Every structure is written in structure tokens, then in C-alpha cells.
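Reminder: ligand-aware prediction takes two inputs, not one.
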Amino acid sequence: MDKIVIEGGAHLRGEVVVSGAKNAALPLLASSLLTGGPCTFKNVPQLNDIATMGKLLVQLGCEVDTSGRTTVVAPPPASAARRRTFEAPYELVKTMRAGVLVLGPLVARFGRARVSLPGGCAIGERPIDQHLKGLQAMGAQVSLTHGYVECEARRLRGARIVLDIPTVTGCENLIMAAALASGVTIIENAAQEPEVEELAQVLVKMGAHIEGAGTAIIQVEGVDELHPIEHTILPDRIEAGTFLVAAAVTRGDVLVRNARADHLEAVIGKLREAGVHVAAEGDGLRVRHGGDLGQLDITTQPYPGFPTDMQAQFMVLCAVARGQSVIKEAIFEHRFMHVPELSRMGADIHVDGRVAVIRGVPRLGGAKVMATDLRASASLVLAGLVADGVTEVLRVYHLDRGYERIEKKLRGLGAHIRRAKA
Ligand code: EPU
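Here is what comes back for the chain with EPU:
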């Protein structure tokens, strides 16, 4: 297993290019199951979660061909429904919850699916009741046996679905299911994340009729079949945000290329509030450190609010800012796993339930730290960049799920960082 070793203190300078968005690529790869031929995706990030989705699609009868950042997914023919059980096994879904994204497409196109229940994970309980409620409203028979969800429907039919929570993957599953249902589906309290909008745009390219994606009400009029497409995946707003914070906390001057200001408004707003200069430049955003970093008050929210996927990284900024900051995690109940590790590096953080109070300290000190989830790992790397001395981040496989060679990109900006065998 690898570790990341960082010698802190470098001011990051230069340009970094953001890769394709993991959380857009995952539903898009799954959406190939809805079509009658090979779909080509470009700018696919080279990440462990993407490889896991590839394995899952192969298991479901797809041919998956990856060359560099281009992935072609050829789904099985509709006639395969007679011969196959469409099963997403526990072994794959437990390593990547997004495996549940095959549920909607499989039921819609092949009439049945058996998908392992993802179970809890490091950041919270994360049930899929809203995904199932929606599919049931569309006429699917849903049962739970031996840790698996079994779903069946001869043909899904349109329905009005009011989500209790604007779940991102839940919404994506239901849009994909509704695309091949008979009649009109209306999803209210829908997730408005750019990745949901991107999925809807791709489904429309495939021939689907969808309106309202990117707003809280999405309307899908089902069609009989969808056709293959070619699509270039949008840049990863969370990777971009992570580099923006890296530049800010190291008092650097960095052009984050492909960072889309329209997808990062809440993040940019908080950086500016902390005194960081952020400006549009060329195809990205330029970040320059101003004076001292100032305290922040942050509550995570569904898009367009402040993203939970940036909470851990901003915790590092608050840890070295002047004054007392408050961060409330309103999306996931256990997403403060980075706090004890940051405390070991000298951060002054007190957690009470979903609220963390952070008193800025002048400096952090390098230490051996261990991450329990993807964004927590990213925050420990950022902490290592600003800390005095050497930081070793263990369990790098979490980082590799969602950041494409982060150490290489940071090294390009002048960080003293390397990957080594743990
Ligand atoms: N929830 C329910 N019932 C459901 C679905 C969700 O109670 O049926 C709850 C969850 O437990 C959570 C909240 O609703 O408290 C929001 O969860 P959501 O379903 O929106 O999250 P997700 O779809 O499982 C996606 C991203 C996450 C990101 C969240 C929130 C993908 C593949 N994953 O997860 O990304 O944190 O939305 O924005 O799109 C990451 O990239 O590190 C990551 C965890």
C-alpha cells in the first residue's frame, strides 16, 4: 500500500489542469446501459472508482474499452434480458457506493436488477430509500433479500415523485429510469448539482426528453429507446476547489485551469471572505494569497450551497486562519473523521455533533496521519503542505478513488511531495 510523504512550507506557484469529474463520469458510464450501442466518453478521469464502475459494467454484460482518458462502453443487447441476471455484487458496491447507479438503467432497459445494498460508510449511514421510493412509484416491484435490493418491472411508467431529500445519485437513478419509462415523470425537490444536469444533457443527446435539470423540478417524458452517443466529461469542481484551497493555504499564486467559476460560486465566495484573491483568467481561475487568512462560518448544503465534498479542505484553511471559525456539516452525519488527525498536527478543533469550532493556530506540525475517506485524505494532504516538517498520509487508496495523481499535480506547483511504499 502507498503513502504520500510531504515536506511542508512550499508556496505553490504555476498552473495545474483539472481532470474530468468523477461524480459526473460515474452516472454517465452507467447510463450506457440504457442505449442500444457503444457510447464513447472522453476526459474520463483515471481513478480507482472509475475502474470499479468499469468492472461492474463488465459484470453486467457490457464491453468496456479504456484507452487513456477515453472509455467506450458497449451495453448488452436488449435480448440479453432473457439470459442474464443483472447483479451488482456486494464486493463491488461495498468499495464504491455509486455502484447503485446501475439500478435505474437496468430496471428501465432489462426489466430487472439485483443490487447489493451499499450499507453504511465512513461518512454516514447513507440509505437508498429515496431511490427505491421513486422506482416503486414508477411501478417497480422492490424487495430486500439477503442484503440485496431486487427490482422488477415489465415497463416502468411515469410518476410524480417528491423526494424527501435532494439526493444526487438518487435523482440520477430516477432520471435514467424515467428516460425509458412510459409516460411523464416529474421529480420534485430534485438535486441541482452540475453532475445531474450533465447527465440529463447526455440523456437528451441519447434521445431522451428532459426538462428542468439543474432546477428543483425535473420533468422526463419517457421514450422507447435511446441511442449511443459521444461525450466529453465536464471538469471536476471538487478537484478544482481542492487546488484553490491548496493555493490559498500555502500563500501561493496558482492558475487552476478548467476550474469553472459557475460551478464553484459558494467555494469562491468563502475564499474571498477569508481574504483570498480569486479571479477568472483564461480557461480557469487564478488564486493569489492576500494578507492573513480570515475566519469563516460555513454550513454545507446541497448545490448551489457550499459542498460537503469541500468541507474537510476548508477545515484546513480555518485551522491556519486568524480567529475562530465554525463549520456545520449538514449533509453527512460522520464527516468529521479528519478532525482527530488534524488535531494531531496541532490544529485546535472542537466538535459537538455536526458542528466544529476551529481556532486558528499560527502553524501546524507534520505527523503521520491516516485517512478514512476521500475528501478527508485530501484535507490531510493540504495540511501537510502548510505544516512544518514532514507529514506522511497513510491509506492513500482513499485518495486514489477520487484524485488523479494529486502528488504529481502538486509537485508541478512546487510542492515537496512524493508517493512511497508504506
Ligand atoms: N439520503 C437518504 N436517502 C436516500 C439517499 C440519500 O437519506 O435515499 C441522504 C444521505 O444519507 C445524505 C443525504 O441524503 O445524508 C445526501 O446524500 P446524496 O444521496 O445526495 O449523496 P450521494 O448521491 O450518495 C453524492 C456524491 C458524494 C457527495 C454527495 C453530496 C456521487 C457518486 N457521490 O453522493 O460524493 O458527497 O452526493 O453532494 O455523486 C465524494 O465524491 O467524495 C462524495 C462522497
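The mean pLDDT is 96. The first strand starts at residue 2 and ends at 7. We will return to this case in the review session.
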